[in-house]
């Protein structure tokens, strides 16, 4: 039995200030295949609460308290759509909202681990996000890429797959350089690569490539592979995760 954490970013789940329901639906189709056909245990880390909230209330997103309020509005909305779509496959969902601090406390981590084991052993799909409402600035992971890496580590996953607005890790920013080349396999990340400026591609996202590299480095140090590919077009993720054929996307794996 393989345990897989899948993380999907804001840019994939939203489009023109609306929820991108077709893309959310495609993601659910992929997860259902992994669960029902491959018998994988899947944990979903989904961003998009702030973006979803903004579809309902146009608050100034620059203020942290407003973003927290938007997350409070958007999180149940996201869950509503996941629940509806997963119902087509008879898959039940659960919600877990965590903050970085939770993993600093052995007791809280143990509580969350106990809940996770009960959910997975009952074939429930846990959907995780940062608990934006109570996380103050210092407590924020700052992004769900690193939250997903900690989730993979503490819930003993075999792999983290990040489905992003980019189809892999390039040797330079592909939005600035036409000759950027996708790197299929990465076995080492130099600390200087983590110093690059943050480059999120959507106004609601907080990550950018640097947070993905930080997540990958943390996991590589703990011998857990991480795969990065597009969440817009799930073909590569399907080939890699379902067909076990690495045609494209980046696999970060320590040698
Ligand atoms: N070397 C690189 N390889 C891939 N993407 C890069 C690179 N350098 C910068 N980026 C930028 O990082 C973005 C991915 O981060 P982000 O927009 O936060 O994704 P998500 O919303 O999926 O978390 C890419 O769309 C791209 O603009
Ligand atoms: N907890 C926030 C996460 C924001 C975030 O990290 O976005 P992303 O960089 O797209 O993964 C939300 O749900 O809006």
**Integer average pLDDT:** 92
Low-confidence stretches: none
Classification by helices and strands = alpha/beta
What is the CATH homology-level superfamily?
Acetylglutamate kinase-like
Radius of gyration: 17 Å
Helix content: 25-40%
Integer tally of domains: 1
Shape label: globular
Order of helices and strands: EHEEHEHHEHEHEEEEHEHE
How many DSSP H or I helices? 8
Within the largest sheet, what's the order of strands?
A: 5-6-4-1-7-11-12-10
CA-CA gap between termini: 23 Å
Keywords: Amino-acid biosynthesis, ATP-binding, Cytoplasm, Kinase, Nucleotide-binding, Proline biosynthesis, Transferase
Subcellular location: Cytoplasm
EC number: 2.7.2.11
Function: Catalyzes the transfer of a phosphate group to glutamate to form L-glutamate 5-phosphate.
Walk me through what this model shows.
One of its GO terms (molecular function) is glutamate 5-kinase activity. Keywords: Amino-acid biosynthesis, ATP-binding, Cytoplasm, Kinase, Nucleotide-binding, Proline biosynthesis, Transferase. ATP binds at residues 7, 164-165, 206-212. Catalyzes the transfer of a phosphate group to glutamate to form L-glutamate 5-phosphate. The protein has helices spanning 10-13, 21-36, 49-54, 64-87, 106-121, 144-154, 209-221, 235-241; strands at 3-8, 14-15, 18-19, 41-46, 93-98, 125-130, 159-164, 169-170, 182-183, 185-186, 226-230, 250-252. By secondary structure, the chain is α/β, with parallel strands linked by helices. The chain has an 8-stranded mixed β-sheet with strand order 5-6-4-1-7-11-12-10, sandwiched between helices. A two-stranded antiparallel sheet has the order 2-3. α6 (144-154) runs parallel beside α7 (209-221). The relative contact order is 0.16. The chain binds adenosine-5'-diphosphate and the ligand N[C@@H](CCC(=O)OP(=O)(O)O)C(=O)O. The site of adenosine-5'-diphosphate (ADP) has 20 residues, from α1 and β8.
